[in-house]
Specification:
The complex is a heterodimer of chains A (588) and B (180).
Chain A lengths: L1 H13 L7 H12 L4 H11 L3 H8 L13 E6 L2 H5 L2 H12 L12 E6 L11 E3 L2 E3 L6 H10 L16 E3 L12 H7 L3 H11 L11 H10 L6 E6 L8 H8 L1 H15 L3 E6 L7 H13 L16 E6 L9 H8 L23 E5 H13 L1 H5 L9 E8 L5 E6 L4 H8 L6 E4 L5 E3 L18 E5 L5 H15 L5 H18 L5 H17 L3 H6 L1 H9 L1 H5 L13 H12 L8
Parallel strand pairs in A: 1-2, 5-11, 6-7, 6-9, 7-8, 10-14
Antiparallel strand pairs in A: 1-3, 3-4, 10-11, 12-13, 12-14
Helix pairs in contact in A: 1-2, 1-3, 3-4, 6-7, 8-12, 8-15, 9-10, 9-12, 12-15, 18-19, 19-20, 20-22
Chain B lengths: L4 E6 L5 H7 L4 H8 L1 E2 L14 E7 L2 E3 H13 E7 H6 L11 H11 L18 E6 L9 E3 L6 H12 L15
Parallel strand pairs in B: 1-2, 1-3, 3-5, 5-7
Antiparallel strand pairs in B: 4-6
The chains are: A alpha/beta (588), B alpha/beta (180).
Chain lengths: 588, 180
């Protein structure tokens, strides 16, 4: 292991022995070594002057870090609900067959590992997978042996026909996808005082696009006024809500607009450094983003004295994540940026008071920052004229599931679900999941409701369920997702989600009673009200919203009995009988 | 009017909840006035003699005999109360749930450091067959009330029992159900 120790030292040096860059150090070592063993963890801890448990704590948290050797190539098969709707399970079986191993295993020659992954941002071209960092899309079972063959022949995966990511931008709108000349918004900003920039933002009444809808101008104002030695701007590009892929399209199609918005925000906040937290699943977008950043530095749009404005220094660093849904939560994201496990912080203090490195920090969604750039270019009034009273501007919707035209739509706020369904070719939908698993399952009687903060808010995920879909089974899969992604810090979320998953499975098995439904609702409300962060607070939504909107679906599966035990005597005795050679005495 | 009948039973646990119950001290004299015991280790009556009003059980369900007796309790008791961590969650015995039963038995009877010569995994017909895991009581039969604690204090048990006997809803003050 001496060779590894030398490598560890070299990588740690490369990141300036900075503990805050542990994420990058771990990523770099993982890429080189294929895993992070206890020995490597110890070496890293020594080199950084940290305790081994601190490093292990961080490494064990992220899905992309393995502590056991994995195959040289890892195939991550997305098993999010929209993918399963399009046959992801059959594709997984085909890969298992082609490789002779099960999901979660590695081929005996150590070449290939297959595993499941939650949403990788390709639900509009499902089923998708990541082979290493390379995405493959629209998979069918027939593709599996071909991809395996190509890997065995040592071909470059990026050259395969399946390694094609469609843009699927179905409806570009005036805010995000209209053209803009580089530097326009920045020049508009630096011609005013930072306070005036915030005032313009205030006029636009722009609200955060991640889903919670906090007024952006207010956030910037709080951050600007908070006491600190430095201020930071963070762009949250960790879109992990299953069925969301709008940021993928922005980062592919108009990264310049995003960087423009980040720079404007930097000016307004008085920040010198901006950080783009890019989800690990989007690593394949990184080279292009780096190029765009280099180009902007070259043009004087980043760096020192930006656009000739004396003293306006600002630059952007991209931080890659390593596969954790919870890091989309802003305080967890900050922890992750600081090189720690992505566990949410207690609030207050809020990030605008004490965020990154304990300094005032504004965390904004990718789409929000794009809107901000446009507000500076076109004016707050222009922006506020679109949408509804409390939801100005447009919203990017990522539409997936049972519809004819999945993809990204830029639409004015206030559009009804019904109109949207018409547009995407899904008039026969039995239900629509607005806002992903953590959002609401909307029934046809509510299709007249509108996508907006005042009615149906969403970070962008819209999953359509066609008439033949087993809706409650989809809800069970949503709950399963939360079980996987709970950070484990608080009991209501860690334990509650697992209990909910078992309770729902029992009902779907046809063994549930009315009392079970009541009990499940009770647990769901406990999880909702007692969890520490947004993940737990919304994890029960799939159950709570279908109990409200589709009580009949539950009713139809219930048994009339007062009590049906979840306990299965025969199954529980099978192993004991096999070991001792005895027969069961009791009958069921 | 006949005194209410109470039965108590224990499954897989440490018997600590029953010991805690005995900790009601002099109130045991009041208890005799209030109730009559049927099947219980306290009077050593082994079988139910008739239907009873309240059943109190401690311990989780780890073998076939536990299942049988728990079902007996449900059949005979109008109200069934699960007390203590083991009955409610499986408790300490359920720590084996993370290890497959075969491995547990092999470690105990074949490969453990205290095994001399060749061990054997007990398979006598008189020994109840173990379940794959330790289950909480409410997964096997319907349970009406839960009294948490390891063990629940004598005051908690007393308060709950008296409330039930008086036909009142069991409402325990915070002090009786806080455990830190």
């Amino acid at each position: 292991m001496a060779g590894d120790a030398a490598l560890v030292t070299q990588v740690v040096e490369q990141f300036g022995r900075d503990r805050g860059r542990l994420m990058d150090i771990a990523r770099a070592l993982h890429a080189k070594l294929g895993c992070l063993t206890e020995d490597t963890i110890g070496d890293v801890a020594d080199a950084l002057g940290m305790r081994r448990v601190q490093v292990r704590d961080m490494v064990s948290f992220y899905a992309f870090f393995s502590r056991r050797p994995k195959g040289k190539t890892v195939i991550r098969l997305c098993d999010a609900v929209p993918e399963r709707m399009k046959g992801a399970e059959e594709v997984a079986r085909a890969f298992e067959e082609a490789l002779g191993i099960k999901v979660g295993e590695t081929t005996p020659d150590g070449a290939i590992t297959i595993e499941h992954a939650p949403c990788i941002g390709l639900s509009d071209q499902a089923p998708g997978a990541l082979i290493g960092a390379t995405p493959v899309t629209n998979l069918t079972p027939a593709d599996a042996p071909k991809i395996v063959q190509a890997l065995q022949d040592g071909k470059d995966i990026a050259t395969l026909p399946q390694a094609e990511v469609d843009l699927n931008l179905r409806k570009p709108g005036p805010v995000i996808f209209a053209p803009m000349e580089r530097g326009t918004a920045i020049r508009a900003a630096v011609n005013r005082k930072p306070e005036e920039v915030i005032a313009e933002m205030n006029k636009s009444r722009l609200r955060g696009r991640g889903g919670a809808g906090f007024p952006t101008a207010m956030k910037w104002d709080f951050c600007r006024k908070a006491k600190g030695n430095a201020r930071y701007l963070i762009c949250n590009a960790d879109e992990g809500e299953p069925g969301t892929f709008k940021d993928r399209v922005i980062l592919t199609e108009c990264p310049d607009l995003l960087f423009e918005g980040m720079t404007v925000a930097g000016y307004a906040l008085g920040a010198k450094e901006g950080l783009l937290y890019l989800r690990g699943e989007y690593e394949y977008l990184l080279p292009h983003l780096d190029q765009v950043l280099a180009k902007r530095r070259h043009l004087g749009l980043l760096g020192k004295n930006i656009v000739g404005c004396e003293g306006f220094d600002f630059d952007i660093r991209i931080q890659l994540g390593a596969g954790a849904y919870i890091c989309g939560e802003e305080s967890a994201l900050i922890e992750s940026l600081e090189g720690k496990r992505g566990a949410p912080r207690d609030r207050p203090p809020f990030p605008v008071q004490k965020g990154y490195k304990n300094q005032p920090t504004s965390v904004n969604n990718v789409e929000t920052l794009c809107c901000a750039a446009r507000v500076l270019e076109m004016g707050g009034d222009w922006f506020a004229a679109m949408g509804t009273r409390d939801s100005t501007g447009t919203k990017l919707l990522s539409v997936s599931g049972d519809c004819k035209h999945p993809g990204v739509y830029e639409l004015e706020y206030g559009i009804t679900v019904e109109k949207l369904l018409e547009m995407v070719g899904a008039e026969d939908a039995q239900a629509v999941q607005v806002g992903g698993p953590s959002g609401q399952c909307v029934a046809p009687k509510d299709f007249g409701r509108s996508i907006s903060f005042e009615d149906l808010p969403t970070g962008g995920s819209i999953i359509v369920f066609g008439p033949k879909r087993d809706l409650l089974e989809c809800m069970r899969q949503f709950i399963e997702f939360f079980v996987e992604e709970s950070c484990g810090w608080c009991v209501p979320c860690r334990v509650g989600t697992t209990i909910l998953s078992k309770q729902l499975a029992k009902i779907l098995d046809g063994r549930g009673t009315r009392a079970d439904v009541q009990e499940m609702e009770k647990v769901a409300n406990t999880v909702k009200t007692m969890s520490r962060c947004g993940l737990g607070q919304t994890a029960a939504n799939p159950i709570l919203s279908t109990l409200r909107s589709f009580p009949g679906l539950y009713e139809a599966r219930l048994k009339k009995d007062d009590f049906v035990p979840p306990f299965d005597l025969k199954a529980a005795l099978a192993e004991g009988c096999a070991i001792t050679g005895k027969q069961p005495v009791l009958e069921d | 009017m006949a005194k209410p009948l109470v039965a108590t039973g224990f499954f897989t646990g440490c018997f600590g909840c029953h010991m805690s119950f005995l900790d009601i001290d002099e109130r045991i004299i009041d208890l005799v006035e209030l109730i009559e015991f049927d099947k219980s280790p306290i009077n050593d009556i082994k079988e139910f003699t008739r239907p009873v009003d309240i059943g109190i059980i401690e311990g989780g369900v780890s073998n076939e005999e536990n299942v049988e007796f728990l079902r007996e309790f449900r059949k005979h008791c109008k109200i069934l109360i699960a007390i203590g961590s083991c009955a409610i969650t499986g408790g300490v015995p359920s720590m084996r749930n993370t290890v497959p039963l075969k491995e547990c038995l092999e470690e105990a009877y074949l490969n453990g450091p205290t095994i001399q010569n060749d061990g054997i995994i007990p398979n006598d017909p008189d020994i109840p067959t173990m379940l794959d895991k330790v289950y909480p009581c409410h997964e096997v039969v319907k349970i009406d009330y839960f009294l948490p604690g390891c063990p629940p204090s004598a005051d908690t048990l007393w308060a709950a029992l008296v409330a039930l006997l008086q036909g009142k809803e069991v409402a325990l003050p915070y002090e009786l159900v806080k455990y830190d």
